Amino acid sequence: MFGWKKQKRTDSEKELPEHIAIIMDGNGRYAKQKNKPRVNGHYEGMQNVKRITRHASDLGIKYLTLYAFSTENWSRPKSEVNYLMKLPGDFLGTFLPELIEKNVRVGTIGNLDALPIHTRKAVKQAVDKTSRNTGLNLIFALNYGGRDELIQAFRTMAHDVENGNLDPEDITAEMVDHHLMTCTIPDPEMLIRTSGEYRLSNFLLWQSSYSELFFTETLWPEFTTEELDQMISQYRKRERRFGGL
Ligand SMILES: CCc1cc(N2CCCCCC2)n2ncc(-c3ccc(F)cc3)c2n1
């Protein structure tokens, strides 16, 4: 999907995280606090995606992965799902020129085949129009589920073993990496979840094995660039051990 190799990081480069992943939670609660319909929370959440994207790009972050729609979100009321499915087109209709101007590359992870055609067209246009950009990689997780992603990888490897194309002893962590939707994206050094929930909710389950986790009570629409800067500052102070002493 992205076409280039994963780059391993050395300690000396870890000043700024290369990859930040965010579970953008609290949009419905935000709307409720404002006595507005839930969809208003999603709209304000989308506006905050623009603010945080601009800031991540200005900081020099290389990858920003945002959990926009999970495989579990289909169970929401149909009217809410229909509204959510319009957001990519709305977002890109107003923000794509700025993304291009800022050399941002748009990408996705997830099973996009299940999305409405109008959603897929809007996303595909943005991916195509930014495919040669070399700045921030803005990756939207759409109809994404970490367990589905792992099951898909396990099935592919099992078929390869069944067909005699793979020795089970040759299944390594690198091989699992290679079979995931994030195969050309480095694992996130930071994983952030807003709105006071302390769960990964099926997001980047394999990839976040060594991520520094950051939780905040702040609702996503109110998550500021200043709070992101504070988390990055905390990240810089945390000693990352990868299981060692
Ligand atoms: C398809 C569901 C959805 C929900 C959503 N929300 C609602 C949930 C979380 C808060 C943010 C606002 N956003 N915000 C941007 C996008 C978007 C997706 C792809 C793309 F190429 C460009 C923008 C988006 N997509």
Element layout with pairings:
Elements: E1 19-23, H1 27-33, H2 38-59, E2 63-70, H3 78-101, E3 105-109, H4 117-129, E4 137-144, H5 146-162, H6 173-178, E5 190-193, E6 212-215, H7 225-237
Parallel strand pairs: 1-2, 1-5, 2-4, 3-4, 5-6
Bound molecules: the ligand CCc1cc(N2CCCCCC2)n2ncc(-c3ccc(F)cc3)c2n1.
The site of ligand V0D has 20 residues, from helix 2, strand 2, helix 3, helix 4 and strand 4.
Describe this structure in words.
The protein is α/β, with parallel strands linked by helices and 245 residues long. Strands 3-4-2-1-5-6 form a six-stranded parallel sheet, with helices on both faces. Helix 1 packs across helix 2, helix 2 packs parallel to helix 3 and helix 3 packs parallel to helix 4. The longest helix has 24 residues. The radius of gyration is 18 Å and the shape is globular. The N and C termini lie far apart (36 Å). Ligand V0D binds next to helix 2, strand 2, helix 3, helix 4 and strand 4.
How far apart the termini lie comes to 36 Å
Number-wise, the strands total 6
What spatial form do the alpha-carbon principal axes imply?
globular
Q: What share of the residues lie within helices?
A: 40-55%
Q: Ligands bound here?
A: the ligand CCc1cc(N2CCCCCC2)n2ncc(-c3ccc(F)cc3)c2n1
Please give the oligomerization state of what you see.
Answer: single chain
Q: Provide the structure class.
A: alpha/beta
Number of helices: 7
Radius of gyration: 18 Å
- Give the helices and strands as they follow along the chain: EHHEHEHEHHEEH
Largest sheet: 6 strands, parallel
Mean pLDDT: 94
Strand arrangement, major sheet: 3-4-2-1-5-6
Strand content: 5-15%
